[in-house]
Amino acid sequence: MSTTRPPRKAVIPAAGLGTRFLPATKAVPKELLPVVDTPAMEYIVEEAARAGLTDVLVVTGRGKEAIADHFDRAPELEAVLEQKGDDKRLAAIRRSAELTAMHFVRQGTPLGLGHAVLCSASFVGDEVFAVMLGDDMIDTRDPLLERMLKVQADRGGCVVALLEVPLDAVSLYGVVVVESTPEHDVVRITDLVEKPSPEETPSNLAIIGRYVLSPAIFPALRETQPGRGGEIQLTDAMRAVTLAGEPMHGVVFRGRRYDTGDRGDYLRAVVRLACERPDIGPEFRRWLEDFVAGRG
After folding, report:
1. How far apart, in whole angstroms, are the C-alpha atoms of residue 35 and residue 266?
2. In angstroms, rounded to a whole number, what is the distance separating the alpha carbons of residues 96 and 30?
3. Which H or E element spans position 192?
4. Average pLDDT over the chain, rounded to whole?
């Protein structure tokens, strides 16, 4: 049974090999690839902090030690910047270490997202918690996680983020069967299907990388057998708790989302966010307009 205190923990699975970004990710974790000048994972941790989550667990794998280093203090570098009087960069490198309390655990064998979440069981305990996939960046102007936490507080159970996707893309996602609710952006989920074909899909509402889960997910994960790809699928465990009577709701997201796990979307995210930066945006936008027009 979960406690009634507000959720304070988030889990970020980060054990993947990042093969789509090779050779860049041969030695650098994909989660640290910069979006403009800030690693993608720092945006995710900042999102957790904005939503009031005070403790973040990163589930890592071999070769991901640099993630912990990034969120640690760097005394030597800080001393150099202090000596130079470079207060702006000093604040920037200290910021990552001050966002939240960071924790790390290794997923010894990469057995899928469900297994990565299961690795967080002792960290989470009996609390409601968030799972945030590092490939999904949500724009700071769209408070999706805050909305999901509010829905969970009001309705209990589990809450997932949903996105309307084209039918030819449903096979890339977990897809849900839903009923409407009085709230325009909230649906009640009655069933879930992992990566259905366009012909078999029950809807075009796909689960994206934000979850607010009750601790009931852990017993379900322990009983979940490997599914698609030989991995323990989080969608399968969520389906089990839903069919067992646990409330499951979805927040339909219509804001700005950047898929940094795809090379094309990653580049688009860099361009969009660079254009909106007050320090470099105006000059970069002028160059981009000239480039598109064939003048750059």
Report:
1. 8
2. 17
3. strand 186-194
4. 91
